[in-house]
Specification:
Two copies of one chain form a homodimer.
Chain A: H1 6-13, H2 17-25, E1 33-35, E2 38-40, H3 43-57, H4 62-70, H5 75-86, E3 97-100, H6 104-107, H7 132-141, E4 145-147, E5 152-155, H8 158-169, H9 174-209, H10 217-270, H11 272-279
Antiparallel strand pairs in A: 1-2, 3-5, 4-5
Helix pairs in contact in A: 1-2, 1-3, 3-5, 4-5, 5-10, 9-10, 10-11
Amino acid sequence: MADYPIEELAHRAGMSVRNVRTYVSRGLLPPARMAGRAARYTDEHLDRLDLVNGLRRRGFTLGAIEVLVRQDPDRAAEDALRLYRGMLAPWRPEEPVEIDEDALAGWMGLPPEALDALRGDPGDAGPGTAGPGVTTARLREAGLVEPAGPGRIRILRPDMVRAGGDAVRLGIPLEAVLTLREHLDEHTGHIAELFVELFAEQVWAGYVRDGLPAEGVPRIQTVVEGLQPVATTALLSSFRARMQSTMDAFIERISGEISESAAADAARLLGPRGTERRLDDR
Amino acid sequence: MADYPIEELAHRAGMSVRNVRTYVSRGLLPPARMAGRAARYTDEHLDRLDLVNGLRRRGFTLGAIEVLVRQDPDRAAEDALRLYRGMLAPWRPEEPVEIDEDALAGWMGLPPEALDALRGDPGDAGPGTAGPGVTTARLREAGLVEPAGPGRIRILRPDMVRAGGDAVRLGIPLEAVLTLREHLDEHTGHIAELFVELFAEQVWAGYVRDGLPAEGVPRIQTVVEGLQPVATTALLSSFRARMQSTMDAFIERISGEISESAAADAARLLGPRGTERRLDDR
């Protein structure tokens, strides 16, 4: 395996040499091979740096990472680190997509003018300032896109933006779609808390009580991976059942409205007798 | 096409002759073929009876069904009736499954004793009355199963019960799974209302304003069918994004807990200097 000096390692990891030295001094990297007085590093060290940096981006403190790495000097520590990274993997959203701002409507499967639908919306800057810029601003506010250089945008949640395009194509105004999306995120946020609490109370708490043993890691990993399809199935099943009962209630309501308007028509056309006949099963 | 007398039609539809005559007198069936003085019916009449009965089960009043059928004497009325039935089709839950009560654990992929997990649960009848009966009672209370004759049960929401079995297999207690399911149904109920309201306000209201024109039916049908995949995609995308941020927050929390417990250990083992070193990046 090719090995290289610390400067090369830092360069490959996109870090400063100084930060790499800090990690080394805290024992976060496996020992280097010594060539005389010079330490030599390999891709194994690079992997570890990526892992540690990934955990830091996820909110892990260096102190916590140290604890995990030192828990057991070999394989088990690596497993523990991968575990925490693995806890997020099943939920990683679709990769963002970068496109020209002008291409957004086309990317959503819409004619260019469809995204001018926000023109003159009372909450916005009003007529005269419409066009793709206003729509982009609204989508940015909704956390769905962000700027990516001159005339370019990054679509942060491609599947959601695509579903929004589908809804607009069905004739639902963009503003109504965006409002629904906000409420949707609120409710799914509560649902996510239910599942994470379940995991925290029923699985994680026991692992903490046992002192975070390395041999408990495979079980945690199994639960985390297994919980993802279970949560998805349960969510969809629950949603389908509730959609059905909500649609039932809606149809019952419109059924009432149809009979009433028919009864009113009949009363107008036929006089009292007609009304009576029309109403006999209501 | 074979035709048959009204008694045969009623028998095939599982209805009384009297009720069929009521439908005929209200003009809910297409005209019969007359063979002398006897009316003869065909499978076309049977289809119509199924449709009308289906709508009644869905909460439609006979009055509303009359309006729909009379709106236009031929094809369009049939289309309108199918429309309302179609509004529910995409959300129809999985077909119920009937099994022996004793076979439930096996059907859920669990060992027989797994469903005794509710034994002695404080909310239940307490120890001594445990066993499959108590569990079945709890599942029935949750609306997941219903009795289907001696020793038999009907699983009303098979996908949900299967997901519950998966969760128990991951080591999560049945009672915790059932509690989560209740909260889940509550939140998905709110989400279902969002989508049905969107449909009611943005699509249905316009159709009512136009006087429920028969030529508007194909558009409503398209929207209803198209909304199902859009709603499912949006729900999953939203849930995935919120699961990720909730897991991020959870990991940040446990990271803090790990460092704290490590700091406490270090303090105990190494004295004040150790504590200081361990805490320097918190």
